[in-house]
Amino acid sequence: MGKIGKLQKFAEVTAFSNCYERAAELKGKWATHVFKNNNPITLELACGKGEYTLGLAKRFPDRNFIGVDIKGNRIWKGAKYALENNMHNVAFHRIMIGNIEDYFAFGEINEFWITFPDPQHAKKRKRLTNPMFLQRYRNISNPHPIMNLKSDSTRFYEYTLEVIAEQNLEVFENSDDIYQLDAIPEYLANIQTFYEKIWLEDGKKIKYLKYKL
Ligand SMILES: C[S@@+](CC[C@H](N)C(=O)[O-])C[C@H]1O[C@@H](n2cnc3c(N)ncnc32)[C@H](O)[C@@H]1O
Fold it and tell me: Could you tell me the domains of the chain?
């Protein structure tokens, strides 16, 4: 079969049983109505094609994973893979992250991943690790959830470190070049996103931060 276009992906993704679009009715009900278990839920924010959602879901079958992005044609790839491989601990949700509190309830989320977000050099207010976004994440999670950030951007990484310092947050892992580490968690090296592969080919160093919100 040939490549399918953006419009067809948009049409298909809305019909996928593991994809939700602005599903405010599921706020507080992801465990009971979607996953049908009480396993902890991780959100991958700005997930694109959902490589971390899928990769972590395979490695941690006792956890649930939701990939969040605004672009349906990107989500399509991860959602299709999850359906074809009967991955019952995976879902995707098409929403704007700025509105995330409309779609998830306090205490519902346990951990976050952000992989290769747009660095938003010109607009601090749009950076997904700014204090305003961090508060939104806290408002939908259990107290002190874990945040994981993987990024190619030195400026974005340094900005995130400034926010961490300002808020006196506990840092578990901090690397400005993960592939130079002596010991790197398997999932950090072996799950590479669409954008990570592009930046690696460009010779960029990949940064990683794991911290408590
Ligand atoms: C550079 S791409 C990274 C995608 C993927 N994580 C990767 O590493 O390949 C950034 C993604 O963030 C999404 N995005 C940016 N701002 C967003 C927002 N406010 N709400 C939802 N998605 C957003 C875009 O649609 C895009 O898919």
Answer: 6-212 (3.40.50.150)
